[in-house]
Amino acid sequence: MERKVLLICAGGMSTGILMKKMEKYAEDKGIELKIDAVGMSAYEDSYKNYDVILLGPQVSYKKEEIAQVTQMPIAVIAAYDYAIGNVDNIMKQVDEIYPQ
Amino acid sequence: MKSNKEKIYDFIQMHDTAEKEGGVSTTYIAQALSLQRTNVSSLLNALVEEGRIHKSNGRPVLYSIAGVSRGDEEECFCKMTGWQGSLQHPIQLAKAAVLYPGRSLNILIVGEKGTGKKEFAHLIYEYCLVKQIFSAESPFLQMNCRDYQGSAKDAREKLMGERQSGMLKDAESGILYMDNVQYLDGGLLREIASYSGKPGRKGLLIASCTPDAQPAQEEFQSEFPIVITMPRITERPIEERMEMIQTLFSTEASRVGRELVVKEELMRCLLLYECPENFQQLKRDIKIGCANAYVRELANDRRITLYVSDFEPTIRQGMSRFGQMREEIERLIPENSTFTFDGSRMRVSETETKNIYKELRQKAKQLESEGIEGEDIKMLLSTEVERAFGKYQQKLIHEVRSRKELELIVDEELIDMVEGFLAKVENARNKKIDDAVFFGLCVHMKNVVNGTKTTESMDRLEISEVVTRYKQEYMLSLAFAEEIQEVYGRQLTIDEVILITMFLCYEPPKQTDKGQTVILYAFYGKDIAASIVRTITEITGFNHIFSFEVSHRQSETQIYESLKKCILEIEQKQGVFIVYDSDLVSKVAEEISEETGIMIRLFPAPVTTLGIELARKAMISSNLDAVYRDAMKSVGDFATSHEKYLITLCTTGKGGAEELKTYIERYGHMEDVQIIPLSMSNPKALQEAFRDLMRRGTILCVVGTFDPKLYSIPFCSITEVFTTPKERLPELLRKTESKDYEVDHQEVFHYLAGQFSHVEIKKVETSVEAFLQEVDQKLKHMTQDAQMGLLVHTACCIERLASGETSPENPKRKAILHQYHKEFQQLLRMLRPMEKAFHIIFSDDEVANMLMIIYQI
């Protein structure tokens, strides 16, 4: 089953590259994954179409708020994983909060 | 008609011949003869005293006819406690004397008062009967020479008699036992000796005296060649004394005909008190104690509990020796054990106590009600301190470091109370109390008034030691405890008061804020180190650099001594950094550090060692590359690895540390770090483990309940680890690793380089790093997360803007710019260098995004 992940960061600028990397990762591993990246200001319009929300570390302080609004499984990407695009670890986080 | 006593004797004799094993029990006799059990047992005791019947040592106590062969010759001597222990040698000597070919040898028994000389002599007599040295009619005659002190004539008459009819003659076919033989005068002694030496004489003479009065006459010594020394009660193993006590109580129990209950502390006292008159005194004292208790309990016919107060005051002193013999005593008489004697059996039961302190207080009260004075109570509840003190110190956590932090945790009233209390203590002791004690005590008292369990079980010895040693502090703590009770309505237990006392007596490790780290170059060869030091000092002007010359002619011990001397001379309280070129130095230096307690850090710079190796290689190989390869390998051996470690520490076992490790592994993102769980139960081993790890790499930090304060390695408390949100854990654990973090940034940029196509990554790195630093310093100190986020965000912005993309609109822009107007302006200025460098413009929307990240809006 395809999982839909929404990445949220401040302006949607930085998650963009992570999104690309994750897409490639999913493709290589044959995992069904749909990923989109949005800024903080835009998530409220789109979150309903996703299963999981991942936050960039720079917006980790918004976790509670977003969790309340969306009522969805949510995780903050570990700073280091985020910064070096360690998709392996990030996918582990996804598995934890939203098991296949 | 025969008396009951005779009936009993006959009954035992009858059963003896019926070969009933070992004899008969009191109960058996009472039932068989339809007599009162108590009567039977007192009659039996009378018979034992008369020496007509023998009483077995084991339980149940069995009675048999004395002097009758029991098949096993050992049976004679095994009636005496210690026959397999301290009396083994005396018994061997006695047997040897009796069985001496031709004719038994006379024996001199030497022993202090009450060591059982007479009893032993009688056992020798029984042994002679068993061995059929004498016939059953042979007499055992005894004479106490002290009765004839100063009247040699009477003594002479008694022994020699007129016309050879004295005791010597009467005992010709048996044994004559002469007690206190030293009271006979020299001439008479000689006569006795020559009399007994007559050929054809069969009887055995046994003399006895105290060690200080051993007759010196040569004739006497040659006629009494076997000298048997009876050990003092204190020379015997403690187990034997225990056995004596038990036997004596059993005897008393059967005499009284009631069960006797003896509690642990009385038992311990009896086991330990100075008993100058040995077994006989022990016997007498126990008799007196039992008699007192019997009188007290006369009205009841239940079991009798014996108290320390029933006994002679001297036995209480026994507890003062408890400290030295603690382990043995506790093994023999476990804590809270109760001994019950019923004449034939002894039962030991242990009372389970959940709260040892409650028990202790009751015990103290009980002792008081028995009329024992405070001083004695203290002694009885005495010693055991060090262990708990150590345990306690480990529990002392400096969670709080400032008054402000303290006020967040502890309510002010309590802080004020503690403050007032400490002020009193300071006043009384005229000594300032460390702040750490104040903070620690506040947090501790908060737990106390909240009813949190704050203490581990301490045992009572510790308690009494603390009380004795820190009386003043203890009294003040007691008063403080009362205050606490008044205000918070919580009654503090003794252990809690003790813990407070210990807080007061705690001396935190001294902060050595003065002093200077010194550097020492310890190199092989003449003047090498000195030259290096000279050069460095010239360049830097730093004067605390020293040199040490290692000579290859010196032995390890010589190097140890001279290096130690050198280190002691140059050391300035802040440790010594040693740059060395020989493994020997590092080995020796570690030992010195251990011996002197001076901190030493070692850094290898194996120039000469490497040179020596190169020279040797070059001598045997002319291949340049081969020499080079070897050299690289040698350097590799020497170089410190960059392994990183994190230590999880548990105060007791490793269990907690292992758990902590699992937790950190799971959430700490410490993949590049090895997590090592260690236990601090053995401080020395811990120190060694630390040193070992430091030799192999770097210890990032220590996580545990309290800071071991080793090698100034950063410490992170377990509370911090568990209260920090999981996603912040890596940051917390790496907070000390600033240098390594830059390495991490490089990795980030390396990763980004693969993603970016419009900008040069090197340029991005330089300008973003500068930008981050400026933000961190001038705007707001950011968490590691925020910083990393901002880094990636900014870098991506640059890439995107450079590619011609624009930032999306930020709907909160206006509000943010309004609220953070000043910061907005500052941030704009900080962004300008990047705008210039990459020919881009950060829109207001984008700046608002950054403000959101920085200020967590």
TrEMBL record, chain A:
Q: Which UniProt keywords apply?
A: Kinase, Phosphoprotein, Phosphotransferase system, Sugar transport, Transferase, Transport
- Pfam families given for it? PTS_IIB (PF02302)
Q: Which residues carry this modification: Phosphocysteine?
A: C9
Q: Gene3D superfamilies annotated for this entry?
A: 3.40.50.2300
UniProt xrefs under CDD domains: PTS_IIB_chitobiose_lichenan (cd05564)
Locate the PTS EIIB type-3 domain: which residues?
2-100
* InterPro entries in alphabetical order: PTS_EIIB-like_sf (IPR036095), PTS_EIIB_2/3 (IPR003501), PTS_EIIB_3 (IPR013012), PTS_sugar-specific_EIIB (IPR051819)
SUPFAM superfamilies recorded for this chain? PTS system IIB component-like (SSF52794)
- Statement: the UniProt record of this protein carries the keyword Phosphoprotein: yes
Per its record, how is this protein called by name?
A: PTS sugar transporter subunit IIB
Name the species this protein comes from. Roseburia lenta
Instruction: Output the lineage of the source organism.
Output: Bacteria, Bacillati, Bacillota, Clostridia, Lachnospirales
Automatic annotation (TrEMBL), chain B:
CDD domains reported in the protein's UniProt record: AAA
Per the record, the coiled-coil ranges are none
Query: What SUPFAM superfamilies does the record point to?
Result: P-loop containing nucleoside triphosphate hydrolases (SSF52540), PTS-regulatory domain, PRD (SSF63520), Winged helix' DNA-binding domain (SSF46785)
Q: Which UniProt keywords apply?
A: ATP-binding, DNA-binding, Nucleotide-binding
- Residue ranges constituting the PRD domain according to the UniProt record: 409-514, 759-857
Pfam families from the UniProt entry: PRD, Sigma54_activat
Name the Gene3D superfamilies on file.
P-loop containing nucleotide triphosphate hydrolases, Phosphotransferase system, mannose-type IIA component, PRD domain, Winged helix-like DNA-binding domain superfamily/Winged helix DNA-binding domain
Q: Which superkingdom, per the lineage? A: Bacteria
Q: Where is the Sigma-54 factor interaction domain?
A: 80-291
Q: Which InterPro entries match?
A: AAA+_ATPase, P-loop_NTPase, PRD, PRD_sf, PTS_EIIA_man-typ_sf, Sigma_54_int, WH-like_DNA-bd_sf, WH_DNA-bd_sf
What PANTHER family does the record tag this protein with? PSP OPERON TRANSCRIPTIONAL ACTIVATOR, TRANSCRIPTIONAL REGULATORY PROTEIN
Q: What is this protein called?
A: PRD domain-containing protein
Source species of the chain = Roseburia lenta
